[in-house]
Input
Amino acid sequence: MFYLGLLWEYFKNYAKTRLTYRADFWIEVISDLTWQAMNLAVILIAFQHTPALGGWTEAEIVFVFGYFMVPYGIFSCFFDLWNFSDRYIVKGEMDRVLTRPAHNLFQILLENMYPPGLIGSFVGLAIMAVTAGQMGMTFDWTDLLMLIVLTMGAVMVYFGLFTALTAIGFFTDAPTGILPLMFNLQSYGRYPVTIYNRTMRFVLTWLLPFAFVGVYPASYFLDRSGAADLRMALLTPVVGLVFTGIGLAVWNIGVKQYRGAGS
Amino acid sequence: MYLDLIRIRFLMMLAYRVNYYSGIVIYAVNIGAYYFFWHAIYGNQEAIRGFTLAQMTTYVAVSWMARAFYFNNLDREIANEVRDGSVAIQFVRPYNYLLVKLFQGFGEGLFRLLLFMTPGLVVVCLIFPIELPRDPAVWLLYLAMLAFSFLINSELNLLTGMGAFYIENVDGLIRMKRVVVDLFSGLFVPIALFPGWLAVLSEWLPFQAIAYLPSAVFTGRSSGDEALVAIGLQAVWAVLLIVPIMLMWRAARKRLFVQGG
Output
């Protein structure tokens, strides 16, 4: 309850600072969406030249793309720590965070909240709805429930992975370049894993499980999916929990390492 | 003097070269994503709009690696200098601010060419099945076209950066411009594959001169006269873009007001 109250207060703060530059909010939303629109354009253009991509139809691929945007939007809203090492470690703002009673990671995430990201999730839902209509898919309330569960799982995969990687900042203040690398790698999750070779498939499933933020959970809803696909889809929350656990553990070890910025 | 600017920026980049090793891996990752994507799109097809799969792979790899060269942050640098007011000092100095930026960009470009694009191309050649052109004339022509890619992209960056004279927060604009350039330059999908109306639109925009035209020459899709037309088109755009830059620059100097002091 305490944390929910904090969430609300931080959000109010964000809104107040942002209302001074109202136009910025929409510029950010639009520039985020342009990026997604371009990725979608690539898919649509490619499908002008082929009826199927590795056995998947256009509607199915676009559905997966739409699903991919949902957890990604939530993640980008609550996890905008790309300059964590600079701001909190090098400049020592971590000191301030640690003296407060709420969990440090929670505070840091909320301080950097980026609500424009959420708009992408809604656009993703709309894309799913449109393509679901094209494929004549039917939805009932269990699907809605599963959508929530799977999306939470996918967000946790993101969260765990990037928390662990951000925590590297505690151990070294040299830029490692690993975060942008991961950020680029996540786009592999937009497409069916079957189009990749065996090594990539293994990496995307078990090591850097970006397949669990896109194609695996999305395939739960598709009619084409067999038992094996459903199994992978249902594994999403499990993978999410495991990676969140790892992420938090690495983070907490990192915080113990933290010695302040000196001076 | 301008040569010194190139040298200084080159040395400055050299001091931070570690960042670029991870850059090579990132570009390889992106090339990989598109490689697998096109592999699946081709399926059993021999060629799409005259592009064989091998050509497409080469196209994707060489376009990304060219981007490693021509990409720069001139737009953001200018926007920052306008925002924090240090651009006022630049006005006083006895040189042309935009030319200074361009040459600094070129210093960075040289660095990227030697320490990013070239090793990157070697790496991706080892990973992916890429067909390099055998004719040395093509290599020479491609190098010349690459210089134009850099010039045109930098000119567009100057234009976007100068947007900061008119809008208070240009970050969104800068990001959007990047996306537009990446799509319409043909980095992700060759323009030849665009549906009719989009292809026509792209052919009238300057962006294709940044990535598509040189890469088409490199993959051997455009050769002979076609290649010469391509480089001619690049030259035309490089010259044409000077006009809006000059106009905007003149107007901007009158508009500028620096906050604080």
Notes: Chain B has one domain: 2-255. The beta strands of chain B are 47-48, 51-52.
